Amino acid sequence: MMKNIAVFFHTLGCRVNQSETATLKQMFASKGYDVVSSPDKADVLIVNTCTVTAKADSDCRRFVGKIVRENPRIWVALAGCWAQIERENLLKLPRVRWIAGTQDKMRLPDLIRNQIPQEESGVLMSFSPFEKDPFTMPFPGMDPNHTRAILKIQDGCDSFCTYCIVPYARGPCRSREFGDIFKEAKWLCARGVKEIVLTGVHVGNYQHNGKNLCDVLEMLMPLQDIQRIRLSSIELFSISQRLIELMKTSGKLCRYFHIPLQSGSDAMLASMGRRSNVSEIKEVILNIHEDIPEACLGADVIVGFPGETDEMFEQTHMFLKEMPLAYFHVFSFSERKQTKSSQLTGKVLPRIISKRSKILRELSAQKRVLYLSRFAGTVQTVLFEEKKKQVWSGLTDTYIRVNVFSGSDLRNRLLPVFLNKIEGQGLSGRIQT
To answer: Which label site among 69, 178, 233, 430 has the fewest CB atoms less than 10 Å from its CB?
Structure first.
């Protein structure tokens, strides 16, 4: 009797990928595969790939090479964004037997079952054209290693910012059927999930049968077992006053926005093909800060976009300094050959990009300290996630990492914590009794 095929998953990139991997794990298990926690026990390595930067590509290449060296008998399945964009490059990786594009990753359980590889086997590829219709997910997904569940409600993007490969890798905007979201949320409730993270490539663009993102939130809020709903990264122009009011009054929507700003220079924003200018960005950020002063506002920023002068960079630097942001992620510009920015002149030298990135990262660290210091001496509710030695770690709804000493099992518990002092990237605290 043939043993079940053992599969090990590795996910690169965004929360959408993480959500899809959770679904894939459920699908593989339901079809009789053994989903294992270590690649040395696996017959097949499945990588959900990312291609948003050149580093994401190289990370995948390195990881596959490492695993194949450690387990020479393993076969490799590659799926998702890098597979969609660079399928020929993936053929060069060792032990690759399956390559599935963005639309076909959910077909992997059947693709692998139908082609048990031999040494002389070829590579099985599956690439379907992108659709624009509303979608459902074939299985609910939950990663047992995490307390917070990521719930995908949207995919694709129509914006075509000049630096971004995502519309080519993910296809056009499309939204998940309204009822299918509710069905998975109830499934997660039944498994004790207390925080759901709503995610999508362009989550604020959700539209289905006249329903928008705020309607999704209002549908999920009455679920009693769900204590928190968090939004993943959201475009600034999707943050409506209705959304701000929900965050301010609901008691469940986490006081947290992560916004892909990318620049504080109007000239750069125009060259990037962004839909907002600096004045509009400032208005929305200050509006949120006025209505919800404790909200954690984070941002993405790109440094070294072609044509970025010292003056443009300084405009970004000063803008970030003035805005009530808690932190920002700083990305060095990464040229993607399919995008419009690859044709632009005025490339910025790597040493200048490195210098500018350092300046912004230091500013972000200062901003984080200022934000954290506002909460020292207060009591906040923390959802605990994991333990290292005797220290439990969890998050406030404002995305502050909190560490406490405890001999009790705090996993997936929401508890009031007195926050003491800044410790690393977060705060230390003690549980209130």
So the answer is: 69
